[in-house]
Amino acid sequence: NQQHKHQPALYTMRLTLSSCLALLAIWGILPGAVTASGEDEGTTILGRLQYPDKSPFNVTTKITLNHGERTTYCQLLNGCTFEIHGVPPGIHQLDVLSTTHHFAQVKIQVTGDKNEEPKCLEYAFPGANKNVVKHPLELTSYATYDYFEQRRGFSILMILKNPMVLMMGFSAVLMFVMPKMMEGLEPEERAQMKQQMEMQQDPTKMLSSLWEGISGQENENEAAPKLSASAQQQQTRKKK
Predict the structure, then answer these.
(1) CA distance 79 to 56
(2) Which listed site, 17, 140, 157, 211, has its alpha carbon 20 to 30 Å from 228?
(3) Tell me, what DSSP letter sits at residue 67?
(4) How far apart are CA 166 and CA 205, in angstroms?
(5) Strands lying side by side in the sheet with 70-73
(6) Euclidean distance between CA atoms 141 and 134, whole angstroms
(7) SS3 68
(8) What is the pLDDT of residues 202-223, one digit of tens each?
(9) Does residue 103 sit in helix, strand or coil?
(10) How far from 214 is each of 101, 171, 194, 208, 227, CA to CA, in Å?
(11) Secondary structure of 115-162 in HEC code, one letter for each residue
C-alpha cells in the first residue's frame, strides 16, 4: 500500500522535470531559430573598399547603413570586403566612415526579390551627379583628408609684398632720384619747389598761403566790376 501511495508522487516529479527540460531546450533553440530566420529574411549587401589603382584598402574601416542602423567593418584578410545581412526592402544609405580617405555615399534600393540584385547609385561628393554602380559594390577612395596645413617656406616674394618694405623702397628711390631731378630744374622752379617743401614741413605756413590765395582771388573778383563801370562811363562820355 505504501508503494502504491508513492507512485503518483514520483510520476508527478518526473513529469515536472521533463517539462522543465523541454522548456529549457525550447528556450535555447528559439533564439538560434529567430536569428536564422532574421538572417534568411532580407537581402545581403556585399562590397569592397579599394584604392584608385584597384588595390585593396588596407585600413580597418567602419561601414554604416542608414546612419548607424546597421554597422559592419571591412575584413582586411579578404581584400577589405564587407557584408551587411538582413537588409529589408526599401531605399537605404550606405556610408564609409574612414578617417584618412574619402569614399562615395551610396543609395541602395532593395526590392525584396532574392533573384534581383539591389540597385545602387553613387554620389562622389555632396551635390555631385549620381552614378549607377553594380552590386557587389566596389567603392574607390576619391581623396585623402589633410588635417594639417603645410608650413610655408622662405620666399623673397613674401618680403617684397610687405607694405613696410614697399614704403622703404619707395623712399630710397626718391632719395636717389630727387637730386637728379633738382639739377635739371631752372632756378625759379627750384626755389618754388623748396618753398613748397618748407610749407609742407610747416602746416601753418601752408594754411596761410592758401588763405592768401583765396583772399587774393576775392579781391580780383571785386575789382573786376569797378573797371567795367569806369569803362562804361568813358564810353558814354565819348558818345556825348
Answers:
(1) 5
(2) 211
(3) T
(4) 31
(5) 70-73, 62-65, 90-97, 105-110, 119-123, 130-133
(6) 17
(7) coil
(8) 667 667 766 776 665 555 555 4
(9) strand
(10) 74, 33, 22, 10, 21
(11) CCCCEEEEECCCCCCEEEECCCEEEEEEEECCCCCCCCCCCHHHHHCC
d(CA 54, CA 144): 16
Coil, strand or helix at 42: coil
pTM over 0.70: no
Question: pLDDT tens digits for 115-145?
Answer: 888 999 999 887 888 899 999 999 999 999 8
Q: Taking the CB of residue 26, how many other CB atoms lie within 10 A of it?
A: 10
Q: Which residue's C-alpha cell is 549607377?
A: 132
Quick one: cell of 166? Answer: 614697399
Q: Which three cell numbers stand for residue 151?
A: 608650413
Contact 47, 82 (CB under 8 A): yes
Residue 122 burial (CB count, 10 A): 19
Cell of 6: 508513492
Helix locations, the chain, DSSP H: 2-40, 156-160, 163-183, 187-201, 203-239
Which three three-digit cell numbers place residue 212?
A: 592768401
Q: Are 205 and 199 in contact (CB under 8 A)?
A: yes
The grid cell for 36 is 536564422
Question: Which residues touch 160 (CB under 8 Å, ≥6 apart)?
Answer: 166
